[in-house]
Structure formats: structure tokens, C-alpha cells
Protein: TetR/AcrR family transcriptional regulator
Organism: Bradyrhizobium uaiense
Amino acid sequence: MVGVRQFDEDEVVATALDVFWRKGLHDATMQDLAAATGVQRGSLYNAYGDKEAIFLRAFDRYAEQFLEAAGNALAQGDAASGLKNFFDMIIVNMTDGSPPRGCLTTRTALDAAISSTDVQQRVQGVLTRLEQLIGKAISGAPGKRSVADANRLARVIVTFTRGLAVMERAGYSRKQLRESATTFIEAVVGNA
Amino acid sequence: MVGVRQFDEDEVVATALDVFWRKGLHDATMQDLAAATGVQRGSLYNAYGDKEAIFLRAFDRYAEQFLEAAGNALAQGDAASGLKNFFDMIIVNMTDGSPPRGCLTTRTALDAAISSTDVQQRVQGVLTRLEQLIGKAISGAPGKRSVADANRLARVIVTFTRGLAVMERAGYSRKQLRESATTFIEAVVGNA
DNA sequence: TTCATTCTTGACATCATCGTCAAGATTGAC
DNA sequence: GTCAATCTTGACGATGATGTCAAGAATGAA
């Protein structure tokens, strides 16, 4: 290999993830990415083709990290405290940074109408895998829940996490989100 | 008044609402609005100043319609069936059109980072008023719930509706959203 | 050391949007 | 009917983003 790449691809993708997380796929520009990574626009085009290709790489990295963290949180303690850990994690995830970055998956989902099918599939992939993680976590619980019930409930839980992401964008504080999550867990998991 | 306006303002705002609902505040352009309303860009600038001013008018109209529909739905039957009506209404609201338009409030909330405080306040206003409507509806219910509990639960319900809006954007069908809503209602309202 | 290949750089053309403005059209008031 | 105020129209310049390209720089291979 001659004429070797002058930048660290991992670093560029990591920096790009930060840019996309703060600005969103649609609003982040190649200029933003070039400025943040220190790599010229032309080089980015040469290396990746276009903005979306960079986004897909960044999003894949994000999805892996996120789902692993979710799995870990859910696995700690029994089903109820696993869920609590999970909500804590997810709320920190979306309220972190200054200003807070929000939830990348949710932001990306909202741009579905103007996104490629590739992007849409990544979003669906994250939600589906999250549903499966949660379904397993709560169907393994002592309660006399059927697997079908657990799956339905898992989807409700995923849906609620998406709602939290929206409320964060609407201005609700970390504390308020935590309170809602607690109320939700009590109402949904405290029985049935 | 000489040199009178050549277009019907109500019609323009109604059409603008449709455009914003389909494209979002950020993605809709003045050209989109001009094409949809049949009013030249220059006239729109002259009459309203800028895109955001038109959006605020359209959004106010939307908010009124939406909150009135929500109130009506909640008021029909007891608290449980009121909630069911409410969810039915809200799901139809976001899955209507072809392609579906989604939820304008949620879409707007997600653009909070790039929106003016005026726009942010409208979003918060809708969510707050919706919370209050729901709080009243469920605190008037026979259950032995305190008002504080009802308010917390109302916020959880609003949050869940936001989640439904995200799931719709992620590709979930009307039927799937209805199933999640049913599961949610059973889990949250069926007890406590 | 030389060379061929790949990457990098800065400039370019294109496009879409924005906001403004001067000239013309319209119309209520007198 | 005339006039003055307001609206409408189409064009203009500015801006910022996109994607491409030719020329130069860098480097592994021989």
C-alpha cells in the first residue's frame, strides 16, 4: 500500500459520532466533520464517499456501545433493579454533555422521512435488538409472565424510553426524567 | 385599508400547517410554502416576516385542535375508556396521511437545539397542557389515587405518547402502536 | 534511490435557500 | 375618477453546502 492514509480512521469515526450526536445526521455538514476531525473535506469524500457513509460507520459504533451498555445494566440484579439500572443508564446517556446531546437513535428516527433505507434500517435494528434484550431480561424474571407478554411489555418499555428522549429535547431535566422512569417502572413492573 | 391582501390568511395558515406537518419546521422551505399556498415567496415575507412566524401561527392552530380533540377523547366514558379513546385519537393523528405525517409536536421538539425559544415554548406548552388534561381525567377517576400521583402518572402517559410518535417514525404500523398502547394502558391503569 | 500508487489540498462549478428591493398592480377612501 | 397606501411580482446578490478534479505530496515496493 503506497500513498497511505494520513489520519486515524478510528479517531475520525469517533469524532464524527460526536458531531452527529450533537447536530444530527441532517444538520451536521461535511464542513463540520472536516473542522472537528482536522481532515479536509476532500479527504473525507475520498475516503468514505459521502456524509451518510461516515454516519453509518459512526452509528454502528454507537449502536454497539449502547446495546452493550444496555445489556450490562439489565443483567445487574433481578429484573426490577435491572430495569432501574437500564433507565438510569439511558437517561444519563441522553442528558450527558453540555448542552446535552439527547438520544442519537431517536433523533435519527425522527428524520426517517428524509433518510435512506440504510439509515432507517439501522434505527430499526437498534430498537429491535433493544426490545429483544429487554424481553429476555424480564421473561427470565420470577413473575408468571408468558413469553408473548414479556415481548409486548418489552416493546412498551422501549417505546417509553423513546418518549423520555423526546421529553429531554423538550426541556425536561435529568431529575424529571428519572422521576417519570421510576413512576413508570413501579406502575408497569411492580405488578402483573 | 388600501392595497388589500390578495389571499385568504386562514387558508394559507392551514396549508402551511400541512406543509410543516409533512416536512417539519426545519426542512420546509419558503419555496415549499409558496408552492403549496400559491402565494409568492415575496408576499409571504411581506405578510409574515419569516418562516418561523408562519410556523408559529400554524402550530398554534394545530395545538388548539389537538388539545381540544384530546380533551374530548378523555372525557368520553370513564377514566379507562377515556384513556383508550385518547390513545386511539393520538395514534390516528400520527399515522394519518400518505405517507403518514407523524406527530408535529414531537418532530418539532427534536429540533429544539436549532429552534428559537418561541418555538421551544410552544412545544412545552402543548406538553404541559396535555399533562394537565390527562391529570384531571385520571384524578377524577374512582381509584384511590392522590393528586400528586395522578400528576406523576399523567407525565408518564404523556411521555409514552411521545414514544409512540417516535416508534411511528421508526416504521411501526398503526396496528403495532395500538397494541403497545393497549398493553401500556392495561399495565399502568389496570392497577394501582 | 526511483517509481508508481494513493492520499491530500485548495479551487471550482453547481445548487438551493435566504432575505431584499424596485417597479408595477390593486383597491379603499375621498 | 383620482390618489395614496399597501400588496404583488420577479429579479438580484449573498450565503453555505455539495460533489469533483487537477496538481502536488507522501510513501511502500523494488
Q: What stands out?
A: Residues 1-6, 39-43, 46-47 of chain B lie near DNA strand D (CB under 10 Å from a C1'). The two ends of chain B are 62 Å apart (CA to CA). Chain B touches chain A through 43 residues (CB under 8 Å).
